[in-house]
Amino acid sequence: MSSSSSSSCTSGQLNVDNPVCFCGLKASQRTSLTFDNPGRRFYGCINYKRNSCDFFRWRDPEICERGKEYIIELLEQIGHLKKKVIALENEISTTPEDNYTLRKKLTNIENSRMALREEMDRLIAKITLVLAIQQSADC
Ligand SMILES: [Zn+2]
């Protein structure tokens, strides 16, 4: 099962009609992402981490078993898609490096070609000289 099964939830949302918690503050509305209550909205204290206010109230009724299964399936599909996106982003981010490597190889090939061209020019010059000497000797 995916790691989204932990007791995680979406970020809090404050609405005027939210109930008031034990601190006397408007409770925030969040969405549960647990296996038992996937997608089910609830109210909780806005300061539940700092204060020890354990105000908790479900906003939505319990989801039927098929609904839970389906939401979990969808969350897992989202997880797979997120992994794919990350893999594709990594692929894209390595492409400039590959282009750099290719450009470097191309420069090396270009340098080798120029060196070979110079070598060829020197050899042609030598051949031309030898032919000229031979021609003048024949005359
Ligand atoms: Zn509170």
TrEMBL record:
GO terms assigned for molecular function: zinc ion binding
Keyword Coiled coil attached: yes
PROSITE patterns attached to this UniProt entry: ZF_GRF
Top-level taxon of origin: Eukaryota
Keyword Zinc in record: yes
Domain GRF-type: 21-62
Parts forming coiled coils: 71-126
Keywords linked to the UniProt accession: Coiled coil, Metal-binding, Zinc, Zinc-finger
InterPro entries xrefs: Znf_GRF (IPR010666)
One Pfam family it belongs to: Zn_ribbon_GRF
Official protein name in the record: Uncharacterized protein LOC109711608
Biological source species: Ananas comosus (Pineapple)
Lineage: Eukaryota, Viridiplantae, Streptophyta, Embryophyta, Tracheophyta
